[in-house]
Design brief:
alpha/beta; Rossmann fold; 2 domains; eight-stranded mixed β-sheet; binds nicotinamide-adenine-dinucleotide
């Protein structure tokens, strides 16, 4: 019998993405699996029930959906009530954030759910097409640049008009990972002059290839696996001294700096904000993990001494069509190599499968989560 893969409506307040778009539904169906989707699951991402007709069977409610499901696709972690509805042994995929959801992990263990936290997919070349962190960060980086352009008091591009020439905005981007690079590219397309900064030396080439200027603070902090490490107090001071000058001259500052598994580094101090031009803006993409700016209030946009500070949350959800399409494609690229004749055979010898697994048959596979549960 073909494996039944099911997609419920997301329940987290404000979440507009859905884990499957109509095109990927069709592609999964072509592999011989049975695709099921809860009625209205795609509505907040503008995918009507009818659009799924070619690939999926519509199911009235989540209870009936889970009663049939062998595999469940989620974006956000399921609620504990949702887990109660899963059949024992179901395979669950989602952005599960186990460190924030230990009670959920315990319930997944009780119910012998095989779960994959898609954010744990290793960042190796072969897995790039499955990398949900990258796909959602690309969406966020684009959106955050538009947000900055919208909130700032000036034009991003240079404008030559009958009333005179208007100088382009100066934008400073802190953190040039996936989101930061997408923000640089978007601000450049809008015509702004862009300077960017990252502690990883490898970022220089990427920043410059997008037509932006690297701010050189003399601090290098390449850590394990291509990520950044935390800076020492002296390094932070050196970084701050140089950045303060560039931030004071900027019309917009976009911050995207992160260290995996930790609170976001505080990079833009209150004094730096107070040294900024009136009408300038800071958009802090790191608001979700505490913010890169000392004055960020997660989820709020407000003014401090004439500077607008925005701390938007869950930005990919505010652009639900491409975010859902890219997420669904990541899931397809992850699962499809293991589907043969409508059956799913998980290959536990595959590094990508083994490293993205959170729980399996009552055991925690992800070592850091096991350590947290033991505390
Ligand atoms: P991230 O979201 O963890 O961090 C964003 C950026 O913030 C990073 O570039 C980081 O260096 C920077 N940062 C951290 N502390 C900082 C500080 N104090 N000051 C300034 N910047 C700071 O990172 P990410 O965007 O997910 O990606 C990080 C790395 O992984 C990059 O090298 C990226 O190219 C690489 N990557 C590789 C693959 C792959 O090979 N499959 C996929 C995606 C990303």
């Amino acid at each position: 019998m073909p494996v039944r893969m099911a997609v419920p409506k997301e329940l987290v307040s404000g979440e507009r993405r859905v884990a499957l778009d109509p095109m990927m539904a069709e592609r999964f169906a072509k592999l011989g699996v049975d695709m099921l989707i809860e009625k209205g699951a795609g509505a907040s991402a503008f995918f009507a029930d009818d659009a799924y007709a070619k690939g999926c069977r519509l199911v009235e409610d989540a209870r009936s959906l889970y009663a049939e499901a062998d595999v469940v696709f989620k974006v956000q972690p399921p609620t504990l009530d949702e887990v109660e509805l899963l059949r024992d042994g179901t395979v669950l995929l989602g952005i599960l954030q186990p460190h924030r959801n230990l009670d959920l992990v315990r319930r997944l263990l009780d119910k012998k759910i095989t779960s994959f936290a898609m954010e744990l997919i290793p960042r190796i070349s072969r897995a790039q097409s499955m990398d949900v962190l990258s796909s959602q960060a690309a969406v966020a980086g684009y959106k955050v640049a538009l947000l900055a352009a919208n909130l700032t008091s000036g034009f991003f591009p240079m404008l030559t008009t009958a009333a005179g020439t208007i100088r382009p905005s100066k934008v400073v981007i802190v953190g040039a990972g996936v989101a930061g690079l997408q923000a640089i590219a978007t601000c450049r397309r809008l015509g702004a002059m862009v300077e960017a900064y990252d502690v990883r030396p490898a970022a220089r080439q990427e920043i410059e290839s997008l037509g932006a200027k690297m701010i050189d603070t003399g601090v290098s902090a390449a850590g394990e696996g291509g990520y950044a490490r935390e800076l020492t107090a002296e390094e932070k001071q050196q970084q701050a001294n140089v950045l303060a000058r560039h931030i004071a001259a900027a019309n917009a500052v976009i911050t995207t700096a992160a260290i995996p598994g930790r609170a976001a580094p505080k990079i833009v101090t209150t004094a730096m904000v107070e040294g900024m031009k009136r009408g300038a803006v800071i958009v802090d993409l790191a608001a979700e993990s505490g913010g890169n700016c000392e004055l960020t209030r997660p989820g709020e946009t407000y003014e401090h001494n004439g500077v607008i500070i925005a701390g938007p949350l869950n930005i990919p959800s505010s652009f639900p069509v491409p975010a859902s399409e890219m997420y669904a494609k990541n899931l397809f690229n992850f699962l499809s190599p293991m589907i043969k004749d409508g059956a799913l055979n998980l290959d536990w010898n595959d590094e990508v499968i083994a490293k993205s697994a959170l729980t399996r048959e009552g055991q925690v596979i992800h070592e850091p989560t096991r350590a947290l549960l033991a505390q």
